Each structure stands twice: as structure tokens, then as C-alpha cells.
Amino acid sequence: MNWRKQHINRKEFLRWAGILALVPFLYFWYSVIRVKSFQDGRKKIEIPLSAIVEGLSFHDQVIINREGNTFLVFSSKCTHLGCNITEKQGGKIICPCHGSQYDYEGNVIKGPATKRLKRLDFLIEEKEKMVVVMR
Ligand code: FES
Fold first, then answer.
1. Which partner from 57, 71, 98, 125 sits 20 to 30 angstroms from 107, CA to CA?
2. Digit-coded pLDDT (tens) for 69-81
3. How far does the centroid of ligand 1 lie from the alpha carbon of residue 132, in Å?
């Protein structure tokens, strides 16, 4: 009886040891995945937080809508034929080529574009006071 109890404890120990042994492996795997996501061909754009004003601002092929600490980040490439958008007017984002209009969340208000502006992944690096956009 006593032996059986010891055997169960040993199995428990081995199970937990196995789980703990996986932690470094999982951390390594996560690191590799993260590195790959930075090497997947997308361009990394660093924008100082001080350059991002409240409301809408245009940066290197990126449009940012900032409300305090909330950011929406879009590609400035029009979804109609790809013109670079650098204008806003009357609460709308305006494409200079054929007049498509988007709201500040990137949704189409008026065509010819039919698809919303592409949302971009980004990180806020508090330490460096930067927004890092992946496009
Ligand atoms: S490229 Fe923007 S509306 Fe045509």
C-alpha cells in the first residue's frame, strides 16, 4: 500500500518535471516564431509618439487615428487602384486620384473603392516612445 502511494507520487513528480522541461522549449519556439514574424518581408516603420497628434495623421505610407492612448493604424494605399492617400477633409480621408472617401476607421464612405483601408499590425514601445508599424 505504501509502495503504491510512493509510485503515484513518483509519477506525479515525473509528470510535473516533464511539464517544467517544456517551458524553455516553448519559450525558444515562441522566440523563433516572433523573429520569423519580423523577417516575413514586411517593412518595419518606427514613428515617434511625439509625431502622432490627436486625431488623424499621415506618416510614411501609414495613416494613424489617435484618440489618447488608442491607435488605429492603416495603410495609406487606396484600395481602389493603390494611390497614396495623404489628405483629410471634413472628417473624411480622401483619395486624391479618383475621389474615394473613407471614415477615420478606414471604412469606405464613397467609391470607387469598395474595400476598407488595410489595418496594419503595430506595437507601442513605451520605453523608446515609439509606435512600430509592420507593413
Ligand atoms: S486609387 Fe484611390 S480612388 Fe482610385
1. 125
2. 888 989 999 999 9
3. 27
Q: Which residue has the higher pLDDT, 24 or 67?
A: 67
Say yes or no: 109 and 52 in one domain: yes
HSE-up of residue 25 (Cα within 13 Å, Cβ side) = 5
Q: Is residue 60 domain-shared with residue 109, that is, in the same domain? A: yes
Write out the residue range of the structural domain in which residue 32 sits: 1-41
- The pLDDT > 70 percentage for the chain reads 81
Note whether 30 and 66 are same-domain residues.
no
Within 8 A by CB and 6+ apart from 122, the residues are 71, 73, 131, 132, 133, 134
80 lines ligand 1 (CB under 6 A): yes
Which residue from 61, 48, 58, 51 is spatially nearest to 124, judged by alpha carbons?
A: 48
Q: Per-residue confidence at 5, pLDDT binned at 50, 70, 90?
A: low
Q: Tell me if 95 CB under 6 Å of ligand 1.
A: yes
Q: Are residues 55 and 115 in the same domain?
A: yes
What is the number of the ligand 1 atom nearest to the C-alpha of 98?
A: 3
